[in-house]
Amino acid sequence: TEITEKLEEVVMIWTKQIRQVLVESEQIRREADDVGPSAELEHWKSRMSSFNSLLDEIKSSRVKKIISILQAARSKTLKQWKELDGSITIAANEAKDNVRYLYTLDKFFGPLANASPVMMEHIPSLMNTVCLIYCTSPYYNTSEHMTSLFLKITNQMINTCKTYLHEG
After folding, report:
1. Residue 156's CATH number
2. How far is residue 74's CA from residue 117's CA, in Å, rounded to a whole number?
């Protein structure tokens, strides 16, 4: 039981740390007012990397051994652990899925940033792709995500126009 108690303490520390990562990942992002759509892709790539690293750690043999010992001891700490494991898996899947969908927009980000203000040729394809993401993505199709994306696309268009006017 002494070993079980020590292992439960370790799992409780991990639980607290994982909860902190989840809480931080859900906080509202502070971004510059003029950030473009590439920042959205970078945000989700970074989040995917973080959660995948966390999943790798959770699935490591060291952690699995500790969890199996606690399962054999019928520890009550495992209920919280399993819930967190599920939450991390969902967050990792969301980030991976969002990166996959946002990569379909990546081909528009360069032309949008480097075009003249007459960028209308890119807009219909860009909007069709955004619509496709909204209709098919299981995670990214929220008004919060779409608003953030459209804001960044609009920012990029405004920045492109400003650059054009300053150079012209």
Report:
1. 1.20.58
2. 65
Residue with tokens 């001891």: 73
Q: Residue holding tokens 């902190």?
A: 20
**Residues of the domain holding 43:** 1-167
CB atoms within 10 A of CB 146: 16
What is the DSSP code (8-state) at residue 89?
H
Residue given tokens 């292992």 in the structure block: 7
pTM exceeding the 0.85 threshold for the entire prediction? no
Q: What is the DSSP string of the chain?
A: -HHHHHHHHHHHHHHHHHHHHHHHHHSPPP--TT--THHHHHHHHHHHHHHHHHHHHHTSHHHHHHHHHHHHTT-THHHHHHHHHHHHHHHHHHHHHHHHHHHHHHHHHHHHHHS-S--TTTHHHHHHHHHHHHHH-SSS-SHHHHHHHHHHHHHHHHHHHHHHHHH-
In order along the chain (168 residues), what is the average pLDDT of each group of 10 residues?
88 91 83 86 93 92 91 89 92 95 89 72 89 95 92 89 81
Total structural domains in the chain?
Answer: 1
